[in-house]
Amino acid sequence: MLKIEHLTKSYAKSSVKALDDLNLELKEGEIFGFLGPNGAGKTTTIKILTGVLPFEDGKVSVCGHDIKSDSIAAKKNFGFVPDTHIIYDKLTGREYVDFMADIYGVDVETRKSRAEKLLRRFELTDAFDAAIKTYSHGMKQKISIIGALIHNPKLWVLDEPMTGLDPNSSFVLKELMREHCAEGNTVFFSTHVLEVAEKICDRIGIIVKGKLVMIGSVEEIKHASHDKSLEEIFLSVAGNEFDSVPLGGATSK
Ligand SMILES: Nc1ncnc2c1ncn2[C@@H]1O[C@H](COP(=O)(O)OP(=O)(O)O)[C@@H](O)[C@H]1O
Ligand SMILES: [Mg+2]
Hints:
By secondary structure, the protein is an alpha/beta fold. Helix content is 36%, strand content 23%.
């Protein structure tokens, strides 16, 4: 599905590694939550695995396709919702979704029925023909989500997707994530919201200073950390007290 091996990344002019020998493997059909404090390396990881950023060392593959040497095949297999709305705001919602559907080669009937369902779920139908520049932050987030799902990707990648969504939309998004996985696909998302991670993730990984410090199901991680709450565990690892908390859960397979 998604395999990240020994990934190392340094930004130009920075002596600190943004990612330091990161290893991660996702399973088919799971929702994986990527947690970590600000600046831990979540967005960097996500931009690398989606082919947005170059990297020095390591290997990343999506559904068996190397993101560097076989990038088009890799990109066909995921949909990406970035943390900033990199969408063309001169287009209408419909034009944007059509553009995404054209890129991924989704036929007219299929794109229409997928878009209609998603627009209804997000209560965005009435704004579909308005220019995206007139959308609120939450509406832009929703159209970005619809664009990312229009080709029904095997892997759905989202960076801090709950930011700016109202409770209703956030609920719908969680439902969509669950449904996407129930159909055998995989969801990989980063979040600061521990309750969301705790509620919907099959497994979580915690990244601190570019290193994965914990991985496993919430239950496994809690068990390995003497049944502390996820918040206590997060605060203790994010505060750098690694020694007091064992590496949680089984290694990813
Ligand atoms: N464009 C950039 N140039 C230089 N350093 C960057 C850039 N983007 C991120 N970083 C640094 O890389 C580290 C990881 O950042 P990021 O991946 O954005 O973290 P997160 O998404 O977990 O908050 C931080 O130390 C950040 O300052
Ligand atoms: Mg980020």
